[in-house]
Amino acid sequence: MIRPALRRVALPVAVALMLSLGACESDSGKGISAPAPPPVNTAPKPASPPSSGSGISADAPPPVVDYAPVPPPSSSMSPRMTDTIKCDDSKGQAAVGRTATQSVVDRVIADTGSRTARVIKPGQSVTMDYSEQRVNIHVDAKNVIISVKCG
Fold this sequence. Notes:
Layout: H1 4-23, H2 79-82, H3 102-112, E1 116-120, E2 134-139, E3 145-150
């Protein structure tokens, strides 16, 4: 037997259920149709204004560059010679024991034949990539050079 409190709730719930199911009934047989979708604009897109002669329209995204620019070679070397520059750390050992000032670092770069230098302090994180054109100058806490190594 159904309790009286449940009877008071069951009747309104049953009525609400029937009304909601009635709203889900298909309208296809009653002549009611869904609203038409908005019309699609088929007019051609207006041409963009002419660019400055570069052949790229103003709406086009910038071109993607997938390489890093290489610094220009010195006047005494051909471009192919600069690709074969390799660091020679044996020629930079004269700097060990000296304070790593800008002039000393520049001298180590010139002596070793490298393109770049990286001064590495104690505990400093560095990438593990190897570059034949870079010299690593390791210094102590007082900025005194303790080793010069290529890579």
